[in-house]
Structures are given as structure tokens and as C-alpha cells.
Amino acid sequence: MGPDATVARRSSLLLLLLLLLLRSGALAVAGSPHRVLHDLLSEQRLLEVEDLSLSLLQGGRLGPLSLPPGLPDLDPECRELLLDFARSSAELTGCLVRSARPVRLCQTCYPLFQQVAGNMDNISRAVGNTSESHSCARSLLMADRMQIVVILSEFFNSTWQKANCANCLTNKSEELSNSTLYFLSLFNHTLTCFEHNLQGSIHSLLQLKNYSEVCKNCREAYKTLSNLYNEMQKMNELENKAESGTHLCIDVEDAMNITRKLWSRTFNCSVPCSDTVPVIAVSVFILFLPVVFYLSSFLHSEQKKRKLILPKRLKSSTSFANIQENSN
């Protein structure tokens, strides 16, 4: 160690001792410690003393501070995998939030979800350059109590399962299924019909009262969409008999809910049921069954009274009594 370094080290130690005394209040004789501190040292000098003291405590080096040796660091391969997962997670989070209302997350975000799942698989399978004990999976997924990467992955998987997005996609989840595409096409066609048949500006929708044109011209489009939705529900129930409470994907359910609210609440339209006449006929028949029963029983009892015949013994006894009365 040269003479300059020794002098600098001693000066720094003395300044450090002075700083500790000022912080503890030992030199606060004629005023507050804060006032004495500003009288003896300027703010800039105080910062220099603190930096120099830290450097001395780390081994006497007067150069810039650096991390102590021995701290764990990621391999370049693992760091690249972590950055890929971070980028895909940020993109998927933004897509989920942007598609929250109206719900379009399954049809919009499924490519990004596949990227996140793929990056998570890469982290789970990858092995670092050092040894098998320091694999990327161990470093990124099990190195601390928080396990941020695992928490994010579980959040995305849980959200995807609750939305039941797999019901909207093909078996390999690579694209939207044909039934989903057909439903979305009918949904857009129905909304277009609503817009074209509105009487007045679409911006004054709440002030409109007469929606007869919408109900008349869009009835077939609405019935077709509703029937397709009911068929998709039945097919889903047949395919998932073992699972109770299964749903269609959230995009399809939300689209149908929007359409039904517009049709019934906003436009106050209704679709006549094709089974109305048979239902009314059966109801009337059941209602009049008691009347028919009591009327038939009454008529049957009257006929029995008319056909009543007196016995022969009763006739002879009455005739004999009449002869006796006449003789008297």
C-alpha cells in the first residue's frame, strides 16, 4: 500500500469517527446535532465521507463499489429464458385487461397464452451450463419463497380454465373451432341487423321508444343465433357428463348475454314459441277434466233413477192393501 493510500485511509477513518460522533450527538454542545453537523461538514463532504467509509469497510478499496464475490447469478441461457417469460407475460396481461369488457379474451389472447405456456415449459425442461444441480428450473422456480414465476404461471392457467377457453378452441388449442367461428359470425350479423333497423341515430339509443322494425326484421337472425347457442350448450353437456356445471367459453356466453339483453330489455322484443298452441290445448283439456267428470257422473246417476223397477212382492202387498180399503 503506498503512502497516498495510507494517508487517505487514516483521513477516512478520522472522518468516519467524527461522523459517528455527530450522529450519536456526542458533539452537540452548543446547539442541536443537526446544526453542529452543518457547521463542521457540508452536505457534499458528508456524502463523500459515507462513501469512503463504506469502501473501507469492504476491504480498503477506494474504487467504485461492486457486488461481493459469491453471490448467485443466472447463467446466460437461464437469463434469456426468464426474459422471454417476462415479455410474454407482460403481453398476455395487457391482452387480458384490454379484452375484459366486452369479453374477447379467448379469441384474442390464445396465441399469447400459448407463448407463455411454451416459455414456462422451456424453463421447466432447460438445464444451465454449469451442472445439473444448478438447472434453470431450480434457479427460477425453486430458489426463493415467493416463486414469482410459478405464481404468474398459475395465475394465467387458472384464468384460462375459469374462462373455459379450451371450449372455444380446437383440440390442440391452435385456433378457434368451427362452431365458435360460426357463432361469432351470426353474432356479428345480428348486431349489424340491430344497428341497421334502429329508428333514428344510434347515439340516441336510450331515447328511442319504438323498436318495431328491429323486432320485425331481426327476429329470424336472433332466433338462429339463440338456437345455435342452445345446441352448443347441449353438445357441451353431452361431452362433459362427468363434470357438473360445465360452461361454454366466456366469449360465447358473454356475446349471447349481450344479445339477449338488447333483444328483451332494450328493444322489448319477444319471440313467439312454436309450441304455444299444443301447450294451450293440453292446459285447457286438463282444466276441464273435473267438469267433464262430474257432469258425466251426474247424468249417469239420473238414468239409473229413471230405470228403477219396483219388486213384485212390493206390488202385491200394495194391491192387497188397496182391496182392503175399498171393501171397508
From TrEMBL:
A cellular-component GO term for this protein: cytosol
Signal peptide segment: 1-28
Pfam families linked: OSTMP1
Sorted UniProt keywords: Membrane, Signal, Transmembrane, Transmembrane helix
Transmembrane portions of the chain: 277-299
One of the GO biological process terms: osteoclast differentiation
Superkingdom to which the source organism belongs: Eukaryota
Matches recorded under InterPro entries: Osteopetrosis-assoc_TM_1
Record protein name field: Osteopetrosis-associated transmembrane protein 1
